[in-house]
Amino acid sequence: SLGKIIGALNFSGHYLLNHKHTLGMVASIVHAIEKEFKVKDFNEKLQATNEYLRAVIDSISDGVLAISTEGMITLANANMRKILKLKNSNLCGRNSYDVFKEKAPILEVLETGKDYFDREDIFVTDANRISCITTARLIRDDENGILGVVGVLREKKDVHKFVNRIVGAKAK
Asked: What are the start-end ranges of the E strands in the chain?
């Protein structure tokens, strides 16, 4: 825990060889060690937060896909991989233009700067053409700069099943 003494630094030598900068050097070394402990503590907390958020995102029943302004996939939850029928493929770090045969529809938000909600989109991979109901929003930093886009997707067939279950109808 920070603020607690966990060790001591000993810098010893013959008293005749003492230099006026010795104490300053010791203090600098101690501060550097303290800083490393603070960075380590911060990184551990950050990693725990990332693992928590990953678990939350993977538990969402819709597909979640985030793409950076450079077109790189920065996040794809388990249901996104399932929708794209790429269950065993790691999408993060891949270029969206390599994953999708046609440009991913959510990239339109980067071009227009306008979010959209519950729109029908078609995502095309090498093996599949998937019709989805999609919501897409810009991802912004603290200074309102654009970092990318995030899309929440639900397969259109799943939406029809849900509506039929609620309404009680058998026809599509």
From this structure: 63-68, 73-76, 116-124, 129-140, 146-155
What token pair was written down for 141?
Answer: 């930093």
Q: What is the Cα–Cα distance from 55 to 35, expressed in whole angstroms? A: 30
- Cβ proximity of 130 and 101 under 8 Å: no
Cα–Cα distance measured from residue 97 to residue 146, given in angstroms and rounded to the nearest whole number: 19
Q: 135: which strand partners?
A: 152
Instruction: Indicate the pTM of the whole model.
Output: 0.67
Task: Name the β-bridge partners of 55.
Answer: none
Show Cβ contacts of residue 121 under 8 Å, excluding neighbours closer than 6 positions. Answer: 105, 106, 131, 132, 133, 134, 153
Per-residue confidence of the chain (172 residues) as pLDDT tens digits?
A: 556 788 888 877 777 777 778 888 888 988 898 899 889 988 899 888 888 877 887 778 899 999 999 999 999 998 998 888 876 678 899 999 999 988 999 999 999 999 999 999 999 988 888 999 999 999 999 999 999 999 999 987 655 555 555 666 555 5
Structure tokens at 104: 């991913």
**Residue 106 DSSP symbol:** G
